[in-house]
Amino acid sequence: MAWDFETEPEFQEQLDWTRGFLDEHILPLETIELEVTDEQWKALTAPLKQQVKDRGLWACHLDPELGGQGFGQVKLGLMHEILGRSSIAPAIFGNNAPDSGNAELLAIGGNDEQKKQWMEPLLAGELRSGFSMTEPDTAGSDPTLLETSAVRDGDTWVINGHKWFTSGGSGADFLIAMVVTNPDVHPYQGSSMIVVPTDTPGLEIVRDVPNMHHPYPGQFARHPMGTPR
Ligand SMILES: Cc1cc2nc3c(=O)[nH]c(=O)nc-3n(C[C@H](O)[C@H](O)[C@H](O)COP(=O)(O)OP(=O)(O)OC[C@H]3O[C@@H](n4cnc5c(N)ncnc54)[C@H](O)[C@@H]3O)c2cc1C
After folding, report:
1. Domain C-terminal end among 37, 71, 96
2. pTM of the model
């Protein structure tokens, strides 16, 4: 059986535009990204994000009610074939992990207040996030073994645990933490996700873990996928 990866001419035109935009406007920014401040970086990338929005390509995989284009995962894959050449490109197109997935989680499970406080600014590209599931002392490939607990204390939850490999964690405004809220039932029923702002007292960011993509400490802040810790 043959797979047909051709797309309709209108979207192919968008892909061709994306390729040219990446070459002309995004790749040159890579040469200065480590030399500018966060404020300068925001000022440099804001007009590029606007062009992507004007072109109808911002967060293309998300449904329109989430501010996206409703194109789905296949078209996202075709775009990422192009955007994957640059570590900064997905954020300029509103489809960078883990923010895009976290926005979908908040859309599915967040209440109105959480959507307003976290999801909307995330979709607007104003906040950054991380997803904290994996732990050092259990097998990360099996989330039913998670040990981090959250215990209700009045109006708040007290979380105890150690996470690592949280991509984008050191530059994130908030984390979505996978925790055990009821150890007495099957993990499928007893696990929860809690939004944890990174300035929460008691939350300690231990370190960035260098990897093959970012071998040196200090290279992480603007690379959502390069920031496990
Ligand atoms: C660059 C990078 C970014 C990441 N980003 C994130 C992130 O944003 N958020 C997050 O939560 N995590 C993140 N992770 C962690 C990632 O999800 C885990 O590394 C992955 O789930 C595997 O878990 P582990 O490393 O604990 O390995 P393990 O689960 O211990 O597995 C090690 C090996 O043992 C095998 N194995 C495991 N259990 C069994 C079994 N029962 N029987 C037989 N074989 C078994 C596995 O297949 C594997 O080969 C990231 C990891 C990397 C490298």
Report:
1. 96
2. 0.82
